[in-house]
Amino acid sequence: MARTxxxxxxxxxxxxxxxxxxxxxxxxxxxxxxxxxxxGVSRHTLRHALRSLQESGHIYRSQGAATRVVSxxxxxxxxxxxxxxxxxxxxxxxxxxxxxxxxxxxCDAELQPMLKAPVGSAWYHIGAVRKxxxxxxxxxxxxxxxxxxxxxxTKLPEHAHAMVYEQIEQHYGVGIDRAEIDIYASSILPExxxxxxVKPHTPCLVVVRRYFDKKGDPFEVTITRHPxxxxxxxxxxxxxxxxxxxx
Length: 247
Hints:
This protein is α+β, with helices and mostly antiparallel strands. The chain has two domains: 7-69, Winged helix-like DNA-binding domain superfamily/Winged helix DNA-binding domain (Arc Repressor Mutant, subunit A), CATH 1.10.10; 78-235, 3-Layer(aba) Sandwich (Chorismate lyase), CATH 3.40.1410.10. The chain contains seven helices and ten strands. The protein has helices at 6-20, 32-39, 43-55, 85-89, 112-115, 164-172, 193-196; strands at 59-60, 68-69, 78-82, 95-106, 122-132, 138-147, 178-187, 203-212, 218-227, 231-235. Helix 1 (6-20) crosses helix 3. The longest helix is centred in the N-terminal third of the chain and has 15 residues, at 6-20. The protein is elongated.
């Protein structure tokens, strides 16, 4: 029988308290000294236990802030499978956006390579945290740039839960004729660390989506940064060739 380590025992005891409601979702755990005294362990052992609970998605830890309980259940790591273009461009329906930035901007020389739009063109910028509904776990930071004439969609009742491109299509009749998707590795920007409750220089997966209309013009560009271990993109590819057994 495999031996259970002390830090895993402490992690399980803390998790039991969370699941029993002693420390409910949204509350803060006691301080590290208090937890060390309660469980009779060293700070090193406690921090190992807390790290495992953070990796499993049950708690949030941020330097200089109290440790917060975010989930009683299984880890909040999302895997999304794609079978169509719409699925690739969308997020699960049990997530929502929390807007922190809403502003008109002009496409300058710095933005132009990302937007692939003429320098001087008018855009509306939405900066938002995407969260999971039940636990309010921050899944990603998203910068959304849309053509300036679509700015009023942020006032729609369904704005926080619906995909922006769907709202544009529904209310303005502008649909996606072509989409570009870039995916690369980077790190969370300093201005987003507190909002996402991550440590400085946390690695992230960046997904850039550009949506073009029938004229070939971009009307929406999104740049989403997912902190490590909070989101997984998954797809399955099958060969269309008929397999002939060896004889």
